[in-house]
Amino acid sequence: MDSGQEDASRSRDDAPSSGHQRAESRRQPSTPEFLREVSLTRIEGIRVGHVQKVSLVPGKVHEMRTLSLKPLLFEIPGFLSEDECRVVMQLAQLKGLMESQLMVQDGQEELAKELNLSPEEIFNLLDINQDGQLQLHEILTHSRVRDGIWLTPENLREIYAGLQADKDGDGLLSLEEFRLLSNDAFQRFLLQRGVKRSQLVRNSRHTWLYQGKGAHQVLQDIKARVTRLTRLPPSLVDLSEPLQVVRYEEGGHYHAHHDSGPVYPETACTHTRLAANTSTPFETSCRYITVLFYLNSVDGGGETAFPVADNRTYDEVSLIQDEVDLLDTRRNCGKSNLRVKPTKGNAVFWYNYLSDGRGWVGEQDEYALHGGCVVTHGTKWVANKWINIDPDYQRQARYQQLVSQQPEDEDDDDDLTLNTDVESPSIHQDL
Amino acid sequence: MDSGQEDASRSRDDAPSSGHQRAESRRQPSTPEFLREVSLTRIEGIRVGHVQKVSLVPGKVHEMRTLSLKPLLFEIPGFLSEDECRVVMQLAQLKGLMESQLMVQDGQEELAKELNLSPEEIFNLLDINQDGQLQLHEILTHSRVRDGIWLTPENLREIYAGLQADKDGDGLLSLEEFRLLSNDAFQRFLLQRGVKRSQLVRNSRHTWLYQGKGAHQVLQDIKARVTRLTRLPPSLVDLSEPLQVVRYEEGGHYHAHHDSGPVYPETACTHTRLAANTSTPFETSCRYITVLFYLNSVDGGGETAFPVADNRTYDEVSLIQDEVDLLDTRRNCGKSNLRVKPTKGNAVFWYNYLSDGRGWVGEQDEYALHGGCVVTHGTKWVANKWINIDPDYQRQARYQQLVSQQPEDEDDDDDLTLNTDVESPSIHQDL
Fold first, then answer.
1. Into which EC class is this enzyme placed (chains A, B) (predicted)?
2. Class of domain A50-101+202-405 as given by CATH
3. Which pTM value belongs to this model?
4. Across the strands, what pairs with B427?
5. Relative to the CA of B320, which of A196, A413, B355, B371 has its CA 20 to 30 Å away?
6. For chain B, which residues make up each domain, given as ranges?
7. How far is B160 from chain A (nearest CA, A)?
8. How does pLDDT run across A322-333, given as a tens digit for each residue?
9. Which of helix, strand or coil describes residue A180?
10. Which of B22, B24, B25, B47 has the highest number of chain A CBs within 10 A, making it the mutation to test binding with A?
11. What's the topology of domain B117-199?
12. Phi/psi of residue B273, each to 5°?
């Protein structure tokens, strides 16, 4: 349920610069307050189990049920018709699907080199509880996404054995033991031994379907229906990523992840990059909403799991324990707080960001963590519609001006408005 | 933090007619949809720990911190000045405080008689897990509030011994054992033995201070500040209960309770009763918001506890276990999810009802369960401002028309509006 870009953003989430100070630093607004003419609708969840009727297509009323409040998550049975599901799957087949994840991702290795950390420094970052030893879960918490290979505690024990890393055999790595390992020792060991698809973070194939003018009517209809559902300005939906169609074969999965990364002042959104200060060192997907469509009913497995939905607290560290890893959707979907069964035509949607309290996008909602449980029987087809919004309002507005080719008025930043129709730039309508 | 009326509403909550079907029955609106001209503001919580600045008094900015989302709960340090706290306590002393709870409440006994249940029927209602035995917690769950005396498992064991109720001494009551007890056997036993203040549901004294025209300026100021804080129509705040001032001596407490009862079609709100159909059999306090002011800093104890704040689920039955009773604020405050320390001048406020999703009051928020922990050192002074709103919009509107002495237009119910200023009925302003 994601493109490849997102993995990069997650690994930065694991980086030392983020952490407890993040929430604090966001509390002080770095830019002066200003009046905006846009206020994004956020649908009320009321309480888990609440059902509201929504009008999405003429002559039909859909029911929308609240599945959780953290994240704000809804299910709409029968959002797509059987025919629509069939057409979307056929269009994706025609276009061809590609592997969602290549065997090895690089780029992250380079980042580590750039930061130029000593083995001691890396050891200290990994050692969460600062006991001078690396427990298995401390390795997993930091190293999994960097390698693009999903490590389990058993894998790690095999690696330790293969590399003779754990000299004293106590299942822990001391600084002395750690120092003897090269930076990419684990990765090289795994690649030498061969990596199976089931050992990757995601095990699926996907493609992208354009939904603008000239696209198949079904795809345009779906886009319009998503706009009605989310009650967001049409321009925001129009300028978002194409529809992503994903196919999981039997045995396919997608371990738990966030569709969007956290956004700091120094981070740019992928979709507004051309309007951003080019010197921003980091980039992440900014997907305010995920709409997930089930294109078929799966014979066995393949649920969408939300491990920490409506948890009282979010504690990233306790997600991965030495024995139970809640992010592992091949093993521990049963321990997730919430699981949605894939049923043909149904849609779920959720907000990956909180509100900022002033009608715009706020902080990342960490509770939006989700994954695809392993498909035990048959094939699973889903589609994703992400609605991209930059948490930096000015950058979103500037981006929309750029793509609609309207002149930007440099003198009057506060009057920026979002166009409701980017396909007809001549029609300018304030929201 | 409540008047005596509320106990009656809670005991009905325990009655057989309520239960799992409640939420279902509320989902089908009993009255046709209509357009309203009022939409109640509900302040956004965003996330636990979120801080928003609010302007309540000229030349000062208060910070309002989100303490929980279930219930929607905020804390505002320095809401009242030291002088204001002093004046409120002095005014309450001048007026005189009365016992918050009399030793024995009747009226409930009569209700049981009216329902005319057989011992077998009562046994079956009490036997939650339907195992043909009454565990201690099954007695506590149902019988505590009916008697107005707070029962602990130890109390019950003493009662069993004194009444020779548990013939076989297994700590459980069988139907045969239960049948030998009279309806009010427990209560009569406790009264004969003598009831201490610490054994009551609440152990405090309180009084009411009128806040309308002619009242002390401090009281009028507080009302105006509450209106600004809650962003609700002034008429709703003006027509609410007076300010309640409560004093807890050392050893004082208030076990966990709801300030408002659930509202069914057949239930009327106390404050709108004069505008309601007089045949409604039940009555409850309808307190949309509770604002709780701490008038002094307590030397020890006296926290406000929210046992299930932000819990993933609400399970009334599991609140009271054989060994741990989360409602007992003399014993188990330490197990509450959230505790607010009483600090002079601070205010907390929360919503006792959810939204109905259309700008009005919805279902009761069960997570708003709260109590006052035992005061271990010194005295505790608090004040409560409740904002009364009838979940039945028509009834609230009719009530406001009645008290503002405006003629009701029988032909056009949909045009009912809430007056913003009831003290000057000539000024009619639509919201």
1. oxidoreductase
2. mainly beta
3. 0.78
4. none
5. B355
6. 50-101+202-405, 117-199
7. 39
8. 778 899 999 999
9. coil
10. B47
11. Recoverin; domain 1 (1.10.238)
12. -55, -35
